[in-house]
Write a structure and sequence with these properties.
Elements (H helix, E strand, L loop, with lengths): L1 E6 L3 H12 L5 E4 L29 H5 L2 H7 L3 E3 L3 E7 L2 E6 L3 E10 L3 E3 L15 E2 L2 H4 L7 E5 L3 H11 L4 E5 L9 H9 L3 E4 L2 E9 L2 E9 L6 E3 L3 E4 L3 E3 L34 E3 L11 H23 L1
Helix pairs in contact: 1-3, 1-7, 5-6
Bound molecules: flavin-adenine dinucleotide and NADP nicotinamide-adenine-dinucleotide phosphate (NAP).
The site of NADP nicotinamide-adenine-dinucleotide phosphate (NAP) has 21 residues, from helix 5.
């Protein structure tokens, strides 16, 4: 039986593993279905993780996360590249159900499954997803070198990625449904000053259109009475927020293993304890998450230490 199973290998999961193993737990496995690092590895620029600022070239999310796994593995954390399907309780321990019908028992669990990009919900979004519509500028921006693209959204991700795309593309239209932005004021200012970025405000994407080769454009409607317009762009980047990945906590009858709020975020206390003893949640999927790498890592540290105490107390 594992001392601790960590589900998810982003900043929260890796740090939980570091603290649990360095604190003395022996059998700690981090289940991460992809490469460790989490969603920040998709970011073209990170300048708010303390101690690692770089201006030119900017530090990418991949640069930031690259050394983390080796440090964690050094203290004994094991990584298995497997998807966790569900976590359930069995007596005084937990069962981790893995893809391929494999099951593993664990004394404690830290869930760090983070969040994934939301879909905006317009016509044609699914049809052209991966064929012109993307949620990752670092991954797909280069396909539109010297071409015009559009970005949907007005948060930090939308504006930061619009700035990144402006380095590659000939023009970046930012389509946002309001006149003010959720993004941090300095980021809005930088985007406003960028000659290649044009804002289309009070606007929403009604429909994406194209043919078998992919996206050809989007039809835009306005909430302020202006006539609808068409933008002929081969690329649309959708950055409209994230959904928490809480599926692993959902039981066969549809209920959740621990308490979650109406948005599905896991309810924890300041020690990352969920409503179930021995089960911890850290990072973007917990309530009131600041959705920052530094905060996810801090949550992971707290959860890793709590899992360590829990297992040691059970054994005492
Ligand atoms: P995640 O990073 O989401 O990691 C969760 C991991 O769990 C993923 O690797 C996923 O593959 C894995 N997983 C999920 N479900 C399963 C399963 N069932 N089985 C196995 N593995 C699973 N934050 C900043 O501080 N500064 C920034 O500049 C910044 N820029 C950003 C730019 C972009 C484009 C994005 C998308 C985010 C940005 N963020 C930034 C936010 C930051 O990335 C997140 O707050 C942080 O990554 C959350 O860490 P996490 O460990 O909670 O979750
Ligand atoms: P977000 O802050 O939730 O912003 C989502 C944006 O999309 C909002 O502008 C929202 O409009 C718009 N939107 C939502 N649903 C829409 C729809 N169906 N159609 C059109 N537009 C829609 O999401 P995010 O930008 O991905 O950021 C997520 C979190 O990560 C935030 O906490 C953010 O601060 C953090 N983050 C931080 C950094 C950084 O620190 N540098 C970088 C990236 C992300 P409204 O504003 O009208 O609601």
């Amino acid at each position: 039986m594992l001392d601790c199973a960590i589900v998810g290998g982003g900043p929260a999961g890796l740090t939980a593993g570091l603290y649990a193993t360095r604190g003395g737990l022996k059998e700690v496995v981090m289940y991460e279905m992809g490469m460790p690092g989490g969603q920040i590895t998709q970011s073209s620029e990170i300048e708010n993780y303390p101690g690692v600022f770089r201006e030119d070239p900017p530090l990418t999310g991949m640069d930031l996360m690259e050394p983390w796994p080796a440090q964690c593995m050094h203290f004994g954390l094991k990584h298995e590249m497997k998807e966790v399907r569900r976590i359930r309780k069995a007596g005084d321990h937990f069962v981790v159900e893995l893809a391929g019908d494999e099951e593993v028992e664990a004394k404690s669990i830290v869930v760090c499954t983070g969040s994934t990009p939301k879909r905006a919900g317009f016509k044609g979004e699914e049809e052209f997803f991966g064929r012109g519509i993307s949620t990752c500028a670092t991954c797909d921006g280069f396909f539109y070198k010297d071409k015009e693209v559009a970005v949907l959204g007005g948060g930090d991700t939308a504006l930061e990625e619009a700035l990144y795309l402006a380095n590659i593309c000939s023009k970046v239209y930012v389509i946002h449904r309001r006149e003010t932005f959720r993004a941090a004021p300095p980021t809005v200012e930088r985007a406003r000053k960028n000659d290649k970025i044009e804002f289309i405000l009070n606007a929403s994407v009604e429909e994406a259109f194209g043919d078998a080769t992919g996206l050809q454009g989007v039809r835009i409607a306005f909430s302020d009475g202006r006539e609808p317009m068409t933008l002929n762009v081969p690329g649309l980047f959708v950055f409209v927020g994230n959904n928490v990945n809480n599926k692993v906590l959902q039981q066969e009858d549809g209920s959740f293993l621990c308490e979650v709020n109406e948005q599905g975020q896991v309810i924890v206390d300041l020690n990352m304890h969920t409503s179930v003893p021995g089960l911890y949640a850290a990072g973007d999927l917990r309530i009131e998450a600041a959705k920052q790498v530094v905060c996810a890592a801090a949550d992971g540290a707290v959860a890793g230490m709590q899992a360590l105490h829990y297992v040691q107390e059970q054994e005492a």
